[in-house]
User: Fold this.
Amino acid sequence: MARKTKLKTEIRKERKRKEPTLPQLKQRLQQVFNKFIRLRDYGKPCISCGRKRLLQAGHFYSVKGYDGLRYDEYNVHGECGGCNGFDDMHLLGYSENLKERIGIEEYEALKQRAADYKREGYKFLKSEIIELIEIYKSKVKILEQKGSNNFAE
Ligand SMILES: [Zn+2]
Assistant:
């Protein structure tokens, strides 16, 4: 009897090990989401300094302070490594250019989402992350196809 219970526990543990955890799923989504941002903004200047540089996915509201906005397309734009990594002043340029890039209405809506997040927080569900991974995988695919067409012309 005891042995059987032990076996069941082992099986359950094994299943748990195989299923990706929420942090693992979020990391996977972050990778495909960042790829989407880089493809979407390919050829555009850095959102903060306006220079043509190699772009990373730069968050306006930081991942650290605003986890709930980390996969928000309006909150993430192509940004050069210098602005994204080291320059705190980058947010001044970012906010100005962001208004232009997404329009004042979307900018205000994003500000509202940030305020809502600060007030209420947000917990991602595994199912939601899995769905977003699929959505961004297909968005990446579409952009990659478009990209190859552009290069062919
Ligand atoms: Zn920059």
Summary: The radius of gyration is 20 Å. The CA atoms of residues 7 and 65 lie 43 Å apart.
